[in-house]
Each structure stands twice: as C-alpha cells, then as structure tokens.
Write a structure and sequence with these properties.
transmembrane helix, single chain, mainly alpha, Rhopdopsin 7-helix transmembrane proteins
C-alpha cells in the first residue's frame, strides 16, 4: 500500500490556524522592526565615522554598542525563525526524532531569552551614559549610576537564568507572573534615576541662563532643546517599560497585550537609543543664531557682561 493511501491530509483545525496566524504575525513584526533597527544602526555608524572629526572614545563606544545590539537582534530573529520551522516539522506526517527535537527546542527557546536580556542590559548602558556625561565632576552621581547599571545587569541575567532553568525542566512552563519583576524593576529604576538626573540638569541649565542673562522669555537654546528631548524620550521609554511590567503581571484578560509587548520590547529597547542619538545629532547640527546661542556662548556672554559691570564700578 502506497504512502499516499495510508496517510491522509485534513483541513487545519481552528486551534492550528490560530497558532499559525500568531506565528506569521510575530515573524512579520520581528522582521519589520529589524529593518528599522538596521536602518537606524547604519545611520548612527555613518554619523560616527563621517562627521569630519577624529573618532572620540564616545563615538567608538556608540558604534560598538550599535553593532552589538544589531547582531544580537539578528541572532534572536534567526533563532526564533528556526524554532518556528522546527515546530512546523513536528506537526507533519513524519516528525523528526523526538528526543533530539526536544533537546534542540530547549536550546532554541533558551538562547533568545538570554540574548534579549543582554540587549536590555546594553540599552541601559546607553541610558546611564547619557546621564553620566552631564555630571563629569560628581563622583556621587557616577557611583549611583554605576550601582543602578549593575542592578540592571544582575536583574536581566538572573531572570534569564531562571527562565533557562524552567525551560530545561518543562518547555511549557511560563513561570509566575511576578517573575517579570526580577527584570522590570531594576530596569525601570535605572531609567527613572537617569531621567530624574537629566531633568535636574535641564532645570539647572535653564535657571543659570535666566539668571545670567536676565531673560525669562528667551527662546530655548540648542542645549536646552537637547536636554528637553532627552527628558521627554526618557519619560516615554520609562512609560513603555512600566506598561510592559503591567502587561506581564495582568490576568489573561489582556493576554494579547502581553504577547505584543513580548514581541516588540526587544527591538524597542534596541531602536530607542539609536533614534535618540540621531535626533540629538540632527538638533546639534543646526546652526546657532543670535536668539538661540549655545550653552558655551551663553556663559561667555554672561561672564563678559559681569566683568564689564565690575570694571565700570
């Protein structure tokens, strides 16, 4: 009896169709976000090497982190695609060897979780660095930011370790909802501290400009615009992380929101700092004018006015 006579193909069940649609949606979103990520990474690398000036340590570090995050994101998507292909093969008439397949499935499920959390931690390096450079003479601030960053790394990799431990025992074990706090709380706290510090520096700078120039209604300077952008983007990013935590902790009533967050968060974490770098670079490239002088020009002008007043007195 031929193989075609002994095996018959039937229409997919509703549950199979739902899973297939879910896979297609997740894969499409992943590759769209990867395309955005790759485009922004190329733009950041171009800015780093084509600015016409010598490469500083900050530019080299930014380029390195951009390449690393893109490589991690690409690796995650490739592994996830391979995992889905393996799932499809398991649903066929002649599935692969079960023991080998389960072992491979476990590895393909654990590895992306570790890589995704690596990207989360790298993203916090950039978040901390933005606040770090605003306080070059403050050891207390740098120490606090360093502790926050260490906490982010510890939270990310402890969470990855717990996930790996669960999946090695049972691939279907999703863990408790509160397990998400191990990852979310340190990352949110680090972003909150960095946002507060950047906001404080923006407020201090505006107060200094107003006091030195005695102008309360002057247009925002370039530095003020950049600081304002950093504060607003940090608040938005923090809100996204809080939303992710709430979605993970919520009941199945908004399970779809949790799944969407889980799909897009890795790429949002990677794309967000690149987008901010490009917007800041664009703002910084705008020429100063009389009504929109830079911070250094403002300080020099105020100092000259003070010295002239003292000489006349």
């Amino acid at each position: 009896m031929s193989l075609s006579q002994t095996q018959q193909s039937y229409p997919l069940s509703d549950s199979d169709l739902f899973v297939l649609k879910q896979w297609m949606f997740q894969t499409a979103i992943d590759y769209v976000l990867l395309g955005v990520h790759a485009t922004l990474s190329i733009a950041v690398l171009y800015l780093s090497v084509a600015s016409g000036a010598s490469l500083s340590n900050a530019k080299i570090a930014t380029a390195f982190l951009a390449i690393m995050m893109l490589f991690v994101s690409l690796s995650v998507i490739i592994i996830n695609t391979e995992f889905l292909i393996l799932q499809i093969a398991m649903s066929g008439f002649n599935p692969p060897h079960l023991a080998k397949t389960i072992s491979l499935e476990t590895k393909l499920d654990i590895t992306p979780n570790i890589l995704i959390r690596l990207n989360y931690a790298i993203g916090d390096i950039i978040v901390v660095w933005r606040a770090w450079v605003l306080f070059p003479q403050s050891p207390a601030v740098k120490t606090g930011l360093s502790i926050c960053l260490i906490g982010s790394f510890v939270g990310a990799f402890v969470d990855a370790g717990l996930i790996a431990k669960r999946l090695m025992i049972d691939l279907s074990d999703l863990g408790k909802a509160t397990d998400a706090l191990i990852l979310v709380v340190p990352l949110c706290f680090t972003n909150f501290i960095a946002t507060v510090l950047i906001g404080y520096k923006a407020w201090c700078h505006r107060q200094d400009i107003q006091n030195n120039l005695e102008l309360t209604h002057r247009p925002l300077s370039k530095v003020q615009k950049i600081l304002k952008l950093l504060v607003e983007s940090s608040i938005l990013y923090l809100a996204i992380w809080i939303g992710y935590g709430v979605a993970q902790l919520s009941d199945s009533g908004i399970e779809l929101a949790s799944q969407i967050y889980a799909t897009i968060m890795p790429e949002i974490t990677a794309v967000y700092p690149l987008f901010v770098i490009l917007v800041v670079a664009r703002e910084n490239a705008k020429p100063d004018n009389v009504n929109n002088m830079s911070l250094s020009q403002s300080i020099r002008f105020a100092s000259a006015q003070t010295a002239r007043s003292e000489a006349e007195g």
